[in-house]
Design a protein that fits this description.
The structure holds 2 protein chains of 2 kinds. By secondary structure, chain A is of the alpha+beta class. In chain A, 37% of the residues lie in helices and 15% in strands. In chain A, α2 crosses α5. The mean pLDDT of chain A is 97. In chain B, the strands form 7 sheets. Chain B has a 7-stranded mixed β-sheet with strand order 11-12-9-19-16-17-18, with helices on both faces. Chain B has a 6-stranded mixed β-sheet with strand order 14-22-21-20-15-29, with helices on both faces. The chains are: A alpha+beta, B alpha+beta. Chains A and B meet through α1, α2, α3, α4 and α5 of A and α6 and α16 of B.
Chain lengths: 163, 728
C-alpha cells in the first residue's frame, strides 16, 4: 500500500509521507508538530489523543493514518478562530477545569463533539459520553461544570443568532 | 510555629517519608553575575541565600562561600529579577507537575512586590538557570518556596522604594509601591519599577528568614486565581516534555526484560542490511535502538533477539502480604537497617486498664501513579556535555544521575523540566532521561524517548504494598487506654495516632519487597490512615458508640476537631439514611494539613453494585494561598484516593505485571465520581502548608466505614471492592 501523502486537517491540506499503518496520532505529532493531541495509552483507553474525524470523536492513537483518506480531521489546534476560543475552551479556563491539563485537549474535543450531538446535556449524559476520557488528576467535577457552562453559552449564542 | 510538631502526631523517631528522602547533591551553582545580566538585561536582582551560608558570608567576608566577587553564592534558594523592560522574572528549582504552583508562586511574588501578576514570568526547574532544589515533593512548595519568593519580592520592593526615595530625595516612608509603580503622593510624582532599574546591574542578597507573619491583608494571595497560563492548555499550544522536538531528532525504543529480576543471556542486534538507519545499543543489560521514525524504532526493537534468564519463586499479589511479614529487610541494606519505633507509657498497663481489647490487620496493595503523560525525555549531546528535557519532579536529582551514569561532571549536564503531565510522586527518578541520553550518545543525534503505557505500568516504580497490625484497649466510657500499631513496608508517614492515648507503641518494619517501589502522593499516610481510622470505627462499633462521638471523646487537638466538626456539619452527620446507604468518616493530620472526610455510599447487595454518592471534605492547612487551587487539589486528591480505595491494584506473579493497561487497571472515571463538597478552613494566623497530598488520607477509611454502615461487611484490604460487593 502506498504511503499517505495528504491529510485534511483544520481546514488545511497538509503534505505528509506516512506509512499507512502508522497511527494518525504519530503523524500529527511527529510529522506535523500538532502536539496538542496527546499519547496517553496507545490503546484507545484514555481519550488523551481524541480528534474529530468528520465531526466524530476518534482515538487518533488507534486510527491508522491510511484509513483516514480525505475525511476532515479537527485537532485541538483547529478550534481557536482569530484568537477567539470556542465556548468549550473558554469554559475550561473559566471553570479551572484542569490541573496538569494533559487530558484537556482530549476532553475538549470529546465535549465539542458531544455538544453538537446533545446541545443540552444533563450531568449524567456528560458522564456517559465522556466515560472514555481519563483525567488522572481527578478534575472530573470541574470538567462536567465546564461542559454544562459551555452548553448554556452556546445555547445563548444560538438564541441570539436566531432572534 | 505550629505547636503540633511537638505532639505525638508527628513522631520524631519515625522518619516522615522514607521513599522520598535522598541526599542532596553538592551545590553546583556557577552562574556569574555578569552572565546573568547579559542573559536577562539590566535590572535589579534579589536573591535569597540559605541561612547558614549567609551567616558564614557575614562572618567570613566575601572569600568563603562567595568565591569571587563577580560570582553569586551557590547556596541560593530563589531569586527574582526586575528588568528594565518592565518584566519581572522569578527563578525557582521547583517544577510544575500540574498542581498549579506556577500560579500560586506567581501570586507570592505579585503579593509582596506589588506588581501585576500577568507580567510575572517564572523560570522553573532548569538546572542551568534556576537555583538548586531538592525536588517538588512532600508538600513542601507552599511552606518553603512560597515563603522564599515572598521574601525576595518584599526585599525587592523595599529596594525599589529606597531607590525612588534617593532619586527624589524623599522620605521612603511617604512613598507607596503599587501596581509596579512607586508614587510620591505629596509631590504628585510616579516612577515605574522598570524606569528605576534602567541601565543598572544591582544585586542584593538576603538571608532566608523565619516565616513571615501570615498576612492578614493579602490582596493577591488568598484569592482564587485560575491556572495562570490556562489558555496555553486549552489551545494545545503548551509543550510538555513528550512534545519536545529538535532538528535531526531520532526516536528511541528500549527492549525490556520479560520480568523483574531477569538477566540478559545473549542478544542479536537488528539486521543492519534491512534497517540501515537504526542505531543499536547494547551496554550491560541495556538494549535499545534509535531510528528516524517511531515506527521504525518499534520494528527494530521487535526484531532484536534477546535471551533472558528469569528469576523463579517470586511472590505474587496473592502471597505478598505473608511475604512482607516473613522477610524483614536485611540490615545494612538501602533502606532497611532499622526498625523505627515510638513508645510512650506502658502498653501492658494500658491493655490491663481496658474493658475491651481488639486486634485487626489491614493491607494495602501495590498501586501505580499512572500519570497520563508517561515518562518522556529528549536528549542532545554536544561534545562531552548533555542537555535533557524530561518530565521529573527532581531535575537536579536527574542531573546527578546523568552525571554519575556517564562519568561526567554535573556542570556538563543540563536538565530542563517543561511543565509536565503530572507525576503524583511517581517521577522522582531519571531512568527515561538516562536511556534517551545513552541512545543519543550512540547515535550522535538528539533522541526522544517516550515510555509506552505498558512500560510506565511495569518499569516505573509502585506505591509500596503494606500490612498494618493494630491493637487497642478501650474503657467502656470510650477512653482509649492502649494503642499499638505496626506497619510493614509501606512507610512511616502518618503512622502515629492523633488521638490522645497515654500508652502507645508504634513501629515501622522495613521488609524485603519484590517490585520496584517508591514515592506516591500521600504515600504511607494513606495506608496508615486507612488502618487507624477503620480501626477507630471498629472500636466504636465494639463500644456501641457513635463513631463521631467516639473520635471527639479521644481527640484534643483543636485544629483536627475543627475540621471534623466542620465536615460533620456540612455532611449533616446523624441524618436519616436511605435504604442501602451508609455513612462513614476518616481523617487525620499530615504535612501541615488537617483533613476530615465524610462519605455516603450506596450498595446493592443483589447486584454487588456499589457507588460513592457523596464526599464532604473539610481541610485546613494554615493560611490559604489560593482557595481555587486548594479546592482543585482537594477534589483531585479525593478522586485519586477513591481509585486506590475502591479498585486500583497491581496484579503480579513471577516478576510479571499482569494488568499493565488502562483496560485492566481501573482508574476513576466520570461515572465513579461522587458529588464532592469541600469546606475550607482558612487559618490566617498559621503559616501556609501544602495541600497536594493530605486530602487523600481520609477517603479510603471514610468509604470503608460507610460500606460497613450500609452492609455490616467490614473490609480491611485496599482496594476495598475491586469486584463489587455482591452478597454471597
Amino acid at each position: 500500500m502506498a504511503n499517505v501523502t495528504k491529510l485534511h486537517i483544520n481546514g488545511t491540506v497538509y503534505s505528509v509521507d506516512a506509512d499507512p499503518q502508522a497511527s494518525l496520532l504519530s503523524v500529527l505529532r511527529d510529522q506535523l508538530d500538532l502536539t496538542g493531541s496527546k499519547y496517553g495509552c496507545g490503546e484507545g483507553q484514555c481519550g488523551a489523543c481524541t480528534v474529530l474525524i468528520d465531526g466524530n470523536p476518534r482515538h487518533s492513537c488507534v486510527t491508522k493514518v491510511g484509513a483516514v483518506g480525505a475525511r476532515k480531521i479537527t485537532t485541538i489546534e483547529g478550534l481557536e478562530r482569530d484568537g477567539q476560543l470556542t465556548p468549550v475552551q473558554q469554559a475550561f479556563v473559566d471553570e479551572g477545569a484542569m490541573q496538569c491539563a494533559y487530558c484537556t485537549s482530549g476532553m475538549i474535543m470529546t465535549a465539542t463533539a458531544m455538544l453538537r450531538a446533545i446541545p443540552n446535556p444533563t450531568a449524567e449524559q456528560v458522564h456517559e459520553y465522556m466515560q472514555g476520557n481519563v483525567c488522572r488528576c481527578g478534575t472530573y467535577q470541574r470538567i462536567v461544570a465546564a461542559v454544562l457552562r459551555a452548553a448554556s453559552a452556546m445555547n445563548r449564542n444560538s438564541a441570539k443568532e436566531a432572534s | 510555629m505550629d505547636e503540633k510538631l511537638t505532639t505525638p502526631v508527628t513522631l520524631p523517631e519515625i522518619e516522615v517519608e522514607r521513599y522520598e528522602l535522598s541526599a542532596p547533591p553538592p551545590y553546583h551553582f556557577e552562574l556569574q553575575r555578569r552572565d546573568f545580566f547579559k542573559a536577562l538585561g539590566a535590572g535589579l536582582l534579589v536573591a535569597c541565600v540559605l541561612k547558614d551560608a549567609f551567616a558564614f558570608q557575614e562572618s567570613g567576608g566575601r572569600r568563603g562561600q562567595f568565591r569571587r566577587e563577580d560570582q553569586l553564592p551557590r547556596e541560593i534558594s530563589a531569586w527574582l529579577h526586575i528588568g528594565e523592560n518592565g518584566t519581572v522574572t522569578g527563578y525557582t528549582g521547583k517544577v510544575e507537575i500540574g498542581q498549579n504552583i506556577r500560579t500560586s508562586l506567581s501570586q507570592a511574588i505579585a503579593e509582596e512586590l506589588h506588581f501585576p501578576i500577568e507580567r510575572i514570568e517564572l523560570v522553573m526547574g532548569d538546572t542551568k538557570l534556576t537555583p538548586f532544589d531538592m525536588g517538588t515533593f512532600g508538600s513542601r512548595t507552599t511552606p518553603t518556596m512560597n515563603l522564599r519568593l515572598r521574601q525576595v519580592a518584599a526585599a525587592a520592593r523595599d529596594t525599589l522604594v529606597a531607590m525612588a526615595a534617593k532619586q527624589w530625595s524623599a522620605n521612603p516612608q511617604e512613598l507607596v509601591a503599587a501596581d509596579g509603580k512607586i508614587t510620591d503622593r505629596a509631590n504628585n510624582r510616579t516612577v515605574e519599577y522598570a524606569e528605576l532599574v534602567k541601565g543598572q546591574q544591582l544585586t542584593e542578597l538576603m538571608p532566608e528568614q523565619d516565616p513571615l507573619e501570615p498576612a492578614t491583608e493579602w490582596t493577591v494571595e488568598g484569592r482564587p486565581i485560575r491556572k495562570i497560563d490556562g489558555r496555553d492548555f486549552v489551545t494545545g499550544s503548551h509543550k510538555y516534555p513528550s512534545d519536545q522536538k529538535l532538528p535531526g531528532m531520532l526516536f528511541g525504543k528500549v527492549l525490556r526484560p520479560p520480568s523483574f529480576g531477569a538477566t540478559l543471556v545473549s542478544v542479536n542486534p537488528p539486521d543492519a542490511t534491512v534497517m540501515p538507519n537504526v542505531t543499536f545499543v547494547h551496554d550491560g543489560d541495556f538494549i535499545g535502538v534509535a531510528a528516524p521514525t517511531e515506527g521504525e524504532a518499534i520494528r527494530a526493537a521487535k526484531s532484536i533477539k534477546a535471551q533472558w534468564k528469569e528469576q523463579t519463586g517470586q511472590p505474587s499479589s496473592e502471597t505478598i502480604y505473608d511475604y512482607l511479614k516473613t522477610y524483614p529487610a536485611p540490615t545494612g541494606g538501602e533502606f532497611g537497617e532499622r526498625t523505627s519505633k515510638y513508645e510512650v507509657g506502658s502498653l501492658d498497663a494500658g491493655m490491663s486498664a481496658a474493658d475491651h481489647r481488639l486486634h485487626q490487620t489491614y493491607t494495602v496493595a501495590y498501586i501505580q501513579h499512572a500519570p497520563l503523560e508517561p515518562r518522556a525525555a529528549l536528549a542532545q549531546w554536544s561534545g562531552n556535555s548533555v542537555t535533557v528535557w524530561t518530565g521529573t519532579q527532581r531535575p537536579f536529582g536527574v542531573r546527578g544521575q546523568l552525571a554519575e551514569t556517564f562519568h561526567i561532571p554535573e556542570d556538563n549536564v543540563r536538565v530542563l523540566m517543561p511543565d509536565m503531565g503530572s507525576a503524583y510522586g511517581g517521577k522522582h527518578t531519571g531512568e527515561c532521561a538516562i536511556e534517551a541520553a545513552r541512545l543519543a550518545r550512540a547515535a550522535n543525534r538528539p533522541v526522544k524517548l517516550v515510555w509506552t503505557r505498558e512500560e510506565e505500568f511495569t518499569w516505573a516504580y509502585f506505591r509500596p504494598v503494606g500490612v498494618m497490625d493494630v491493637s487497642a484497649g478501650v474503657r467502656g466510657d470510650g477512653t482509649i487506654t492502649a494503642w499499638e500499631f505496626h506497619n510493614y513496608n509501606s512507610g512511616g508517614s502518618g503512622i502515629g495516632t492523633m488521638y490522645d492515648v497515654a500508652n502507645q507503641r508504634i513501629v515501622f518494619h522495613p521488609t524485603q519487597y519484590p517490585l520496584r517501589q517508591g514515592s506516591y502522593r500521600a504515600l504511607a499516610a494513606t495506608a496508615n490512615h486507612f488502618a487507624r481510622e477503620s480501626f477507630m470505627d471498629e472500636l466504636a462499633h465494639e463500644l456501641k458508640m457513635d463513631p463521631f462521638e467516639f473520635r471527639m471523646k479521644n481527640l484534643k487537638d483543636d485544629r483536627l476537631r475543627a475540621v471534623f466538626e466542620a465536615s460533620a456539619k456540612k455532611f449533616d452527620w446523624g441524618q436519616t439514611k436511605k435504604p442501602g446507604h451508609g455513612f462513614g468518616m476518616g481523617g487525620g493530620f499530615e504535612k501541615g494539613g488537617n483533613v476530615a472526610t465524610f462519605a455516603e455510599v450506596s450498595v446493592d447487595r443483589a447486584t454487588g453494585a456499589m457507588h460513592v454518592e457523596r464526599v464532604v471534605c473539610a481541610f485546613e492547612c494554615g493560611a490559604i494561598v489560593n482557595p481555587d487551587g486548594l479546592r482543585n487539589q482537594i477534589e483531585g486528591g479525593n478522586t485519586m484516593g477513591l481509585g486506590g480505595a475502591l479498585f486500583e491494584a497491581i496484579h503480579f506473579a513471577n516478576g510479571k505485571i499482569l494488568n499493565p493497561h488502562f483496560a485492566q487497571y481501573r482508574v476513576p472515571r466520570f461515572s465513579d465520581v461522587p458529588k464532592m463538597e469541600t469546606v475550607l478552613v482558612d487559618r490566617r494566623d498559621i503559616p501556609s502548608a501544602g495541600a497536594g497530598e493530605s486530602p487523600l488520607m481520609g477517603v479510603a477509611p471514610a468509604i470503608g466505614n460507610a460500606i460497613f454502615d450500609a452492609t455490616g461487611v467490614r473490609l480491611r484490604a485496599m482496594p476495598l471492592v475491586p469486584n463489587g460487593l455482591k452478597a454471597t
